[in-house]
User: Fold these one by one.
Assistant:
Number 1:
Amino acid sequence: MSSSPSQNPSPKSQQQWRFTWETLAHISTLRLYLFPTPSRPSLSISNLTASLNPPLLVVSFANENSEEVFVRVPVPKVLIDPESELEWAVKSDYVEIKLNLMLPVDHPVFADLGEDDSLNGDEGFLPLNQNDDLKELSSKDVDLYCKSCSAKLTKEPLRKFTQMPSENWREAAENWFGNCCCSFGASGEILINNYLKSFDLSQTSLLNFSSVIVNKDTLFHSSSDKQTLLFNPQNKYTHTNNIVTQCNDNTDHCCHGEKNAHEKTIISNDGNINNNIYLGGGFMISENNISKDVNWVEFCCYKCFAPIGAYPCNNNTNSNDFNMIDGGIRLFKCYISTSLPVGGPNDIFRRYKVQNLFSNLLLEMAEDEISFRTVVRDLKSRKPTLKIILLSSSKTWSFSDSCFANRADVNGSGREAELRPVMKVLFADCGDDDDDARLVESWKKKYGAEEVYMHMSQIEELKECLNFNLGNIPLSCASLQRMNVSWMEC
């Protein structure tokens, strides 16, 4: 721009501005939201112009005092179409500018660029990958550490890891062979049992997308963790989706759902990982895998007492027993580290957070269930805590920061503008009373929403993240259908 700001600008002309870059997967348009901080219900500006001078976008306008204002916004590393013109408009409380791209940001060429950037310490483009985790963990002996206080969690290094099947793996096997243990479906049970016997939790640690499942005897733990294993060798068990049923050897028919079968608590203390696979990783449990017989207890660091995982206990209301179902402690990747310093280049779990674990699992569930609505429930009380609607079945790419008007330098946080994958959502708190719970139940039935169960400590982190990111959106765009618009990293 040829003109320049006045030498003695007023405080208003030097106001702080918030900006958010956003683009959708498969879409070749990059959108900028630019609005003052703090936000105002209406924006009084005129003579708006914008010019691209990489790596900056210069926005010029006259404020309500007819003072000329310049805002310099850093532009992300994208392929902007040089032949297309910028589009801009003044909305009620923000400025919107659109740039046309030559390629959408999720094009495969950017995946190659992301791999190159990761070599230079920038891993923002790279997705979380369970296979990469398994490869790195299997290449060396691994100790685990608490991310909060750096305390060593393992008594001895873990040496053997294997990937845990998906939570519906048993159902998939039964689809091949049938689920009646007295018919051809017995072949499915034999196949499953042989598979389970091939593992020994005392020697092998399990890995899924969100968790590492290790034997409780390999970890340091506080004196308050005195749960023991239950075992009843007189019973034989077959498995269904949500319960374990006890078979009566004296009956001629032993089909799931028959009167001869009844619910039984999942109990085992043998050396295989049967129940570990059956119960899953414990970070987020779908409605199909929740059981009234199982009570999930948070596992905390023995030194700082921060929650770092969970383990399943029986929930037998007819006795005073309250014991571990199996010997597997589920350690959540977002709370543990594989090396010191925590978060360093050798830490395999350095990029895991509660929000990106949740985002990836929710997007995966949306693809499988073709549902964009979810109710998040407290795993302990089973009460609804959050309603979430995905605004897109795929990832959004975004970057937010702040800058000051009429400054030669950008003067924000100093971060380079790098688009990151996020999950854009509508969310609402469910409230605490019975009327709120009934409204949530009605909303779930009306729209066919899915349910997931999580520990309250993780839910509180999700709420904090969602509320924090509200500040990256103009007020006029921050709500829809009595729900707030926000996002979480993927």
Note: The chain has a mean pLDDT of 80.
Number 2:
Amino acid sequence: MVRLSTPLLAALGLAADRVYGALTANLDDPESIKQAAAQVAEDLLTFYHGDEPGMVPGILPGPPPDGDYYWWQGGALWGTMLDYRHHTSDKTYDPIVTQALLHQVGPNEDFMPPNWTASMGNDDQAFWGLSSMLATEIGYTDPPVDQPQWLALAQAVFNEQTHEDRRVASGNCKWGLRWQVYPSNNGYNYINTVANACYFNIGARLARYTDNQTYADLATKTWELVHGLGYISDNWDVYDGAHLPDCTDTNKAQFSYNAAMLLQGAAFLYNYTEGAQVWKDRIDGLVDRMLEVFFPDGVAFEPSCETAKCNTDMESFKGYLHRWMGSTMQLAPYTREKIYPVLKTSAAAAVKQCTGGDNGRFCGFHWTSGVFDGDVGAGQQMNVLGALISLLSPDTAPPLTNTTGGTSQGDVNAGSDEPLMPTFAPVTGGDKAGAGIITAVLIAGSLSAFAWMSLD
């Protein structure tokens, strides 16, 4: 499915004989980076069929066993494509992106579509909210006035996740955001980093965009909760989470997207507070440790699964790692000296192994070997696309606010303020699989290292 427009190819100087063959890029030349990114984006969207007749807009094929991808990865895909657009000015895919995001908003305009509520995690909903927030910050084309607006959608997600029904009422884990939305879902009593980090991240960004201190206060409260539970260690390791009743059985698996989500949120609050020392200290602690843990020898690596087997969710984490570290350089420019050289080394390794597929340039998952591993998918393409555009971040316009050019209309009361108790259809094997985004797959035993974890 070739989606790259002829005018864009011409504008990028892509000769016909270079469209096929191993991916190449001169990482010292922004135009060469954009050219390579355009090819990776084109190949990425071959995994998406939601714009085809009879298919559902917004989602990647799935969930298992009907396809490899859970609902949240659709939201992650559009965030990647929005970042690609912002860094390259390529608007080729705007109709696809807009259709995809708006199709999944649901009747309450909160990214809670009924088809997915039976397996809805707070992190799942948040990934769609993060993409909506990104659309707000990059000045992406606003939807028609009779459609939900980007800012209001992000606010709806944040408001609903602030609701007491999503949170732990008392005890050591008090106010922790549960992983799953509904008590009927496996993982409801797992208080994990990613759900809380997503909420923290959206809150930090809403604070900066709207200049509303309430969002910053709630984001700060979340950081203090996560740190207080020991999910952020004194050594700046970021762990996966723990269970009720007391959140002391900490799962010490480290995944890059947890740390990167916290880092980006801290960078937004650093920028919002005009360089507050507390946020600088948190940025510095995370950056130093992330470079040690997730970039051995300067190349992105997932230590908690890559030496064994990463599942489809985990195979998309490197892209978020790169993109959100790139965003950190925009919001806290002093970090560029430390972050940029490592992102560049990692991106070079990422590009080097993109020699697969029928066109000779599809990307695999493992970057450290320097050789294409045959493991292709949407996540693998998102990873390399994220690596490439992260190198453009320092010289790309930083996120907008509502006083610096942002146009999206918000609604401080967006979302539902009533508990949503879905009427469940008979549970199928696919539904049960859909309940386990990311951590649940670990818990279910896809990695023996985490077999000790139990759900409720």
Note: The first strand starts at residue 190 and ends at 192.
Number 3:
Amino acid sequence: MSNCVEEKKRDSYNEDVDVVATEDDEHILHPEIRQAAERRLVRKLDFRLLPTIVIIFIMNYIDRVAITSARLKGLETDLGLTDIQYDTVVAILYVSYCPAQIPSNMLLNYVTRPTFYIGTCVVLWGLTSALTGVTHNFAGIIACRLFIGIPELDVRLD
């Protein structure tokens, strides 16, 4: 008796398809073994992905409240901002954030590896956020806040 079992099946297009299964496949496809392997895989993915997602979420939250904390520590006096300019700095983020959401989501559908796209957005978001700390005037912080909205829309987790 052969280790291979051949049978004819019909797929959704009513074409004949040859399916070859070995005796080893029956062991792999056993429901209990498959469920155990699936649980191990999910646990492995959780241990690798969740810490990274948590760190990104914490950094995103810190970035969102950093501008208000900086105001309490003298941001306005350091950059020579008026109250209206400070309000503009806070609000300018959404000028790039809101209009860029739809094109970014459309682009994400065409990217073959979303991990590269999202990873690049995380790096750009971090660099732009770090560059906010080296600004010296109103125009510099406006530029940083304007450009931070574009990569942040793919990092935002709320």
Note: The CA atoms of residues 28 and 37 lie 9 Å apart.
Number 4:
Amino acid sequence: MEELGHRIEISSIPQKWSQNQWGSIIAAQIVVEESIETALVEDGYRPDAILAKRHQIRGFMFYPLGTFFSEQTYVGYVRSIDNLGTRESVPYKRVIQAIENYDLFIV
């Protein structure tokens, strides 16, 4: 959680978010990250490899354009995971696409 909070702090310098917005974004990112990590392990990827690449994985999940999305986007990812399942979520599909395109190596 501290890593995610620090990343938000660095990446959001031009944005002014309230403490509630920061908390909401971090909470949503934690749910998404844990769901995708679980799915990747179930898909056969090693937990230690996922941990080693967590920063890159987060980039594909949360900042594919190099900047943050809105709070509503991250909360929407959680709803999508809850309603459709992790593997149907946009962040999971981004990670899988990165693996398939050899932009992300998890071995």
Note: The chain has six helices and no strands.
